[in-house]
Each structure stands twice: as structure tokens, then as C-alpha cells.
Amino acid sequence: MNPRALPAGLVLGLLAILVVAPLAGLLSLGGLQLNDPRELQFWHSAYIQRVLVFSLWQALLSTICSVLPAILVARSLALQPVFPLRALLLRLFALPLVVPSVVAVMAMVSVYGAGGWIPLGRSLYGINGILLAHVFFNLPLAVRLLLPYWQAIPRHHWQLAAQLGMNAGQRWRLLEWPALREGLPGVLLLVFMLCLVSFAVVLTLGGGPRSTTLEVAIYQSLRFDFNPSRAVALALLQLALCVVVATLTQRLQRLPEVEIGLDPAPVGIRPVFSTFNLVLIALAAIYVGMPLLSMLIDALSGPWFEVLTETRLWQSIANTLIIGLSAALLSVAAGWFLLRYSASLAFEGRGLAARWIELAGSVVYVVPPLVIGTGMFVLLSSWADVFGWVYPIVIAVNALMGLPFVIRCLGPPMRQNHARYERLCRSLALAGWNRFRYLEWPLLRRPLGLAAGLVAALAMGDLGVIALFGTPESATLSLLIYQQLGAYLVSEATVTALMLLGVCLAAFWLLERGIGGGDRA
Amino acid sequence: MLEVRQLEFAYTADEPRMHFELAVAEGEVLSLIGPSGSGKSTLLNLIAGFLEQQGGSILLDGIAIDALPVEARPVSIVFQQYNLFPHLDVHTNVALGIDPALHHSAAQAKAVDGALDRLGLAGLERRKPGELSGGQQQRVALARVLVRRRKILLLDEAFAALGPAQRAEMIGLVRQLVEEQRMAALLVSHQPRDALIASARTAFVSDGRIVTLQDTRRLLDETQLVEVREYLGSI
Question: For a 10 Å CB count at each end of chain B, is N or C smaller?
Fold first, then answer.
């Protein structure tokens, strides 16, 4: 038997328990109580239809508003491979990966809220605010996912196009579009999925029942209406939607096999100077950079003394660190064992089995964390104090949320390592600890560090499951910000948001550098 | 002596089985030439244990070695690329050939130095593979072969990335090592000239079988076999 099968099997078993048990809990509750006239009325109400339509509508609009400009910006960046601050700009575009959604919300409020640089007043709350925040997150992501398609066009093709005297339109039609259309459906569906399951942004910027998505409706059913059976039915509806989108994504997904990193990718095209390209790039940079800058300025003049002297803050920082670091450790370990096994299966020519194992690690794309959280809430509430289980549940669900990132960061280099050195290792009897020490650690520590940093930042900034289970004692910084916003303490929330951003960036940097090593050669 | 007896293998149940039969004497380098996909590398992978045969046996000095796991087989192998770990220096890459845990006695450390010296790599011990030329990298791989002291040496297009002069030099080195350590070596190459330099005898492989095994010069210059002449471009 493959010695890597056992640890991978254990991880798969734990994943199954973590996903199947809550789903079973949801199903066992029976979901919809159709014999209850009030429930029947609820499901026929305009509210539920509006929630469903709004969930899809905001996801669709957010996708269009993020990906279409991203195509233009990615093209500009590809055709403009050399200009001052290009590397810095690509790093800025990687920043939303580690910016907690609640911090992004504060940044949006800082720019577009009352007294902001571009005040939108009350109209910020609702679809406008949701779109602004979703584009803030997904435009840079889409740019980074799309850019490699231009970079994959062989240099000879560009030279041929130049020799044949193709104009920009012909180049687009004959060179760029054929390369781009391979990956575009996958990117569109990925962004759609991320917006569909977006929780914190809609919760804080939605502004009321008119702009509620399924995720938020589930949360409201549990925490405010105390109606678990309705939450269950909503969760099952959300699950069905996610399964459809995830299946489509899987069919169409041809995302580039690139490591998600903070380093600018190499470019192999001769620069073509264009004011239009530079203006587009500058606008995108302003869109992403301005909210963070504005929030920074607001926070620096905020009520630091009041915030820092509150004991809740320090307790929240401790909780944030405990949850973030534990989730990162758990997620990276689980991803490592899964990928080690899938790489060995791929090497043996069992590519399909390898792919299924990696897909199992990305189960959170199909079963949203809030659905898992709801299931756990239902499951535990019958025999235990759910709020007493906050740490293990939040850590486990956040680790699960981080697993797709681990798989994406570590998977390609691990497979490459395996393909290159497996035969040599076997012929030299390099196995176990020696293999880890001399081969895997030196060659994989960098993506390992990146994965750990990303998962930690993601978990520290999460406002999803913690909002379901969190108590004042177990609140993280994200939850504290949400509570401060709820009490109209916007200045305090801005200061806390800056602290959360600092904690996330510090944890990301320390883990990425600490594990990944300082040598970036 | 390395003997391959009625060795059979197929990648899938649908395709016909490859069938190999050959013997290589101690101190001999036997070349394998033939078109791409003919089964040359498959044969090497079977001997090394990376693939599991479906029939036949592999013997060294009359003792079957085909039931042994990869690491226990008396085999050293040199690939075209990825023979060295890029993050480890030259000395460590060679030393791994003796003990993967790198717990070496003074004598073993001296053996590594000796092998590097023998292959003209003295002074490069602390360099990383990326700081060496292609030829130097393959010399490091050969230095590891030297310290491993295994009876079978497999060279899977090991020098394909080198220029003609460097290839000839490396093959000369291989011949010396094989004779000194009394190894049985199999060299897979796409260059008939390599076979001419390396081996008194050469096997021509096609469609998963050894079509002919004979004196290298005669095979390359005088054979009337259509498959060989087509391969050599002499038809």
C-alpha cells in the first residue's frame, strides 16, 4: 500500500465528518416545516423570492463589474511590461487576498461614506456598497488570474503579428482572445461564486431586507429570528445553488496553473507605450489603493486611547491570533498530506484519482462555510452549549475554508517536485524524514509559507462562522468591528479595522517569511 | 553479468506486450538505440524497478533482483535532467548517494572528495548545480555513481543535452568508470555516434523488442535490416 495513503485517508475522513455531519444535522431537522402555516406563508412571501433574486443579481453584477474592467487592466499590464512601480502595483493587487472583508468594508465607508472623499450618503448601503466592495476584492484577483494568459502567448507569435503588420484589433482577435477565452469562463464563474457566498460585505453594507442574500438570511434566521428550521431550508437552498455553480465552474475551469504569489510575474512582450493603457492601470490602482489609504488616514486620527484601553480589544486580538494560527496549521497540514498522496497518484498515472482528492480538499466551494456552521449549530444545540464549542468549530471551519488556497499554492510545485525527483529519490532510498529535510522542505517551504500566511490572514479576518458562534468572550477583531459598527462607533471601528489589518499583514508576513525563508532568489 | 530474460511489459491491457531479452557483461557498456517510443527507456525503468514487469526476470550474476524494491536494487541511474537537487551543493548531492541521512564516516566523506577529484570537480564542492555547466552537472551525477558502487549503471539519454565533444568526453569517462568498477552498463541514446564511442555491442530496439544485438560498427555501417536503415536514414 502507498504509505502516503493512510494520512491522506485520515484527512479525507475528517473532511467527510466536518462536511457530512452538519449536512446530516440539517437534513435530520427536516428542513422546511410545511405543516406550519406561518412557514408556508414565509416561503410564498415576496421576501424569499427577493432574497434569492438579489443573491444571484448582486453576484452577476459584481462579476461583470469586476471581470470586464479586469480584462482591460490585465491587457494593459501585459502590453505595458515595463513602467515605474509596476512591481509595486502587482503587489497592491495581491493585497485584497489578505485584507479581511470587514476591513475592506471600513475602507469603503471611509471613502464613500458620509464625510468620505467621494460621499455617496445613504446610497452606499445596498447594492452600491456591495458592488464597490466586491469589485475592490475581485478586480485585482481577476487581473492576477487573467494576466498569465497574455504571458502564455509565445514571443514568436507577437513577432509574427508584428511582421505581418497586424493592428491592435487583429492582434486581439487572432492572438489575445483565443488565449484568453480558454480561461475566461473559469474566472467569471470563480468570481460569481465568491460573490454568491460573500457574507461580511452584504451583512455590513447591505443595509436591510431589500439587499439581503441567502447567506445573510441564514444568519438572521439563526441569530435574530431564532428559527433553525428556516435557516436549514435556506442553507439547503444555498447549497443547491453552490452545487450548480461549482459544477459549472469545474466543467469550464481552466485556471492557469500558477502559484498565487505576491511576486510580479515575468513578462515576455516588447513594451508598447500607450497612454490609454497607463490611464487604465492608474485608475485600477486608485480604485484599489484609495480606500485603504483613506481608512489609514481616518484611523490615524481616530480615538486610539479609548480603543486601546478597552480590555475587549486585547481579548479579541488574542482570540484572532489563536484562531488564525491554529486554522493555518491545521489547513496546511491537511493540505500537505492530501497533496503528497495526490502527487504520488498522479506520478503513477492515476491522474483522475489524484484530481478527485484535490477536489475533495476544495469541498468548501460547494458547501459554504455558513452552511457548515449552520449544520453544526443545529447538530450541537441538541446536546451541548454551542457557544462553548466556539474555538474548535471556528478553527475547523476556517481551516476548511483555507484548504483550497493551500491546494492551489502547494499543489503545482508539489506535483512538479514529484515528477522531477520521485525516481531519483526512490533510487537513492531518500524517504521519510530525510526526504522531507533534503528535498521537500527546501523546495516547498516557500509555497508552504505563502499558504500558511494566506490561510492565517483569511481566518483572522473571517466574519462568518464566528458571527454565528461568537460570544463577547470569544469575539475576534472582525466580530468586535461588527459590534462596534452595530453600536454606531464608526471611529472606533476604523481604528480596530486598522489594527486587524496590521495583525493580518504581520501574521501573513511572519509566516510567509518565517516558513518560506528570506531568500527570494 | 546482468541478464534480462523474457522480460514482458505493457502499459495497458489493450496494447501488445513488450518483450526483452539481453545480457550485459561486467565491465561492458551496451548501447540501446532505436526510434522514440520503441521501449528503450521502458526497459531501463523495468531494470531500475520504476515499472513492474508482467513476466520474465532480471538477474545479476545469476541472482534475481526483480523482486527487490527500487532502493534495494544494485542500480545507479543517470537521467538527462533532474539528477541533482538544485538547492544542495555538489558535495551533498554526491554524498546522498552513500547515505540519504548524510551520516558519513570520515572514510565516506573522503570517498566523496575522491570521486569529485576523480571527475575533475575538485574546488566546486560548495557550488550549487545552477552554478555549473551542463557537463559539470552530469559529472556530479557520475561522481555519485562512483560512490554508490552499484553493479548496474543505467544511462537514460544522460548526455543528450550536451554538445558532441562533451558527449564524447563524458562517454569516455563512463567507459573508464564501468571498467574500473566492473559494472554492467546500459546506455540509451538517440545518437548512433554515441553508441560507436561507448560500446562494442549495440542493441536496436523497435516496437518493444530487441530487433538485433550485434557489433556496433557492423550494425551502423553494414546492416541490411530495413528498420535499422530507416532509423539511421540510410534508405
Answer: C
